[in-house]
Design a protein that fits this description.
Blueprint lengths: L2 H5 L3 H28 L4 H9 L18 H12 L3 H21 L2 H13 L4 E4 L15 E5 L2 E12 L11 E7 L8 E7 L5 E6 L11 E12 L3 E2 L5 H37 L1 E2 L2 E2 L4 H27 L8 H26 L10 H10 L7 H15 L3
Parallel strand pairs: 1-4
Antiparallel strand pairs: 2-3, 3-7, 4-5, 5-8, 6-7, 9-10
Helix pairs in contact: 2-4, 4-5, 4-7, 5-6, 5-7, 7-8, 7-9, 7-10, 8-9, 9-10, 9-11
The structure holds flavin-adenine dinucleotide (FAD).
Length: 393
């Protein structure tokens, strides 16, 4: 298989990439710097992704989605992140953590009720796992759900929820919420659909002054005797750890793909700048130390890109099975993206340190990839544990 085939294995993938790239150039790139500066989630632009059929990229067409695979999801995340990783994070929370998660774990009735609106961009969704006092230690979550007749009653709070707010004061529309339905420390978690308007569900706070990903909103959400209909339980009671693990694979893969977009853009910027900028009578690209920044960045980017697309090609959206490598691609690409962005800043000198060339923003955005969706320490722990179990590679 040629390199080209690995990244765009079919004509459909190639057409998708060129459509998204063209849209990004025309509509995403021009607003990225302002959205970062003002910490604004560009909701109209986000809804445009629905017009393009991207918001439910992995959801079957009968529920309003694009019916595509993990490679397609990776392509969209790479292309959006080359311009605006913050907008892409909002996209990921909606398309992967809400829509794909509900598609994989929900019933046909739940899919029919929620996915057409989510795919069209009429609603904005997210996923609530992390809590103020439990992140990596997910089984330590404290939010509870108890059955009361035809309702489930949720109590607790969720932290760092992307798309939790759509503005400074307004909740997002619909969420998949993990809650404990058994004893603490056990695996007895269940998953619920919670919509804006459910009694007892409110926006705690929109979190401000983030280092990066400032074009996406992050919020604390509060559940106080929050009543949701019994029909909003996703899958069986107590089964949600399995849902969570399956969805984490595509989440980590697409977060790694975001790292690819960041690195590619940084490479393009430093490569162009190094040819144009002169010092001591010659373009700085002729200096060995500058060549090292560019060449090392390119090789690391291509290694990450090859790993991501190889894992994406093998990832089955329906079944778990790519855990070690979904940890592996994110572990590699998150730090790779940050280091490539760092090299870009260094190559640009003072010009890299300010907003004009985008690389300082991409460097700030890249840092989130080492934390969100699992910290790099969590990936290291998971990979070592899986390797110890597997034995041979
Ligand atoms: C911008 C942003 C958006 C996010 N969006 C979402 C979202 O939409 N939905 C959602 O549910 N969550 C979201 N998160 C939460 C994110 O997934 C968590 O921040 C992440 O999982 C880490 O959890 P924590 O912040 O509680 O850190 P902790 O788990 O408290 O970790 C603190 C430090 O301790 C280390 N550590 C913890 N346990 C171990 C261990 N066993 N061994 C070694 N080191 C360890 C960690 O690696 C880290 O360095 C988001 C976070 C951010 C910042």
């Amino acid at each position: 298989m040629s390199t080209h085939d690995l990244f765009d294995p079919t004509d459909e993938h190639r057409a998708l990439r060129s459509m998204v790239r063209e849209f990004v150039l025309r509509e995403v790139d021009p607003q990225a710097q302002a959205s970062d500066r003002t910490e604004t989630f560009n909701v109209p632009l986000f809804r445009r992704l629905g017009d393009l059929g991207l918001l439910g990229i992995t959801v079957p067409e009968r529920f309003g989605g694009g019916g595509m695979d993990a490679v397609a999801a990776v392509i969209v995340h790479e292309e959006l992140s080359a311009a605006d990783p913050g907008l892409c994070l909002a996209y990921l929370a909606h398309a992967m953590l809400f829509a794909n998660n509900l598609q994989q774990n929900g019933s046909d009735a739940q899919r029919a009720r929620h996915l057409p609106d989510a795919c069209a961009g009429r609603t904005i969704g997210g996923m609530c796992m992390t809590e103020p006092s439990a992140g990596t230690d997910v089984l330590g979550m404290r939010t509870t759900a108890a059955r009361d007749g035809e309702f489930w009653v949720l109590d607790g709070a969720k932290m760092w929820i992307t798309n939790g707010a759509v503005s400074d004061t307004e909740l997002g529309d619909v969420f998949l919420v993990y809650a404990r339905t058994g004893d603490r420390g056990t695996q007895s978690l269940s998953l619920f659909i919670v919509e804006k308007g459910c009694p007892g569900f409110r926006l705690g706070q929109k979190i401000r002054d983030k280092l990066g990903m400032r074009a996406s909103t992050t919020a604390e959400l509060v559940f106080e005797q929050c009543r949701v209909p019994a029909a909003n339980l996703v899958g069986a009671e107590g089964d949600a750890v399995g849902h969570m693990m399956r969805n984490l694979e595509i989440e980590r893969l697409t977060l790694a793909a975001m790292g690819l977009g960041i690195a590619r853009r940084c490479l393009e910027v430093m490569n162009r700048y190094a040819r144009e900028r002169k010092a001591f009578g010659s373009p700085i690209v002729e200096f060995g130390q500058i060549q090292k920044h560019i060449a090392d960045s390119y090789a690391a980017f291509m290694a990450g890109r090859s790993y991501v697309y190889q894992v994406a090609g093998a990832l089955d959206l329906v079944r778990s099975g790519s855990r070690i490598d979904s940890d592996g691609v994110k572990l590699f690409c998150s730090t790779m993206a940050k280091q490539v962005a760092d090299s870009a800043i260094q190559v640009l000198g003072g010009y890299g340190y300010v907003a004009e060339y985008q690389v300082e923003r991409l460097w700030r955005d890249a840092k989130l990839l080492e934390i969100g969706g699992g910290t790099i320490e969590a990936h290291q722990k998971n990979i070592a544990r899986d390797l110890a179990r597997i034995g041979s590679i």
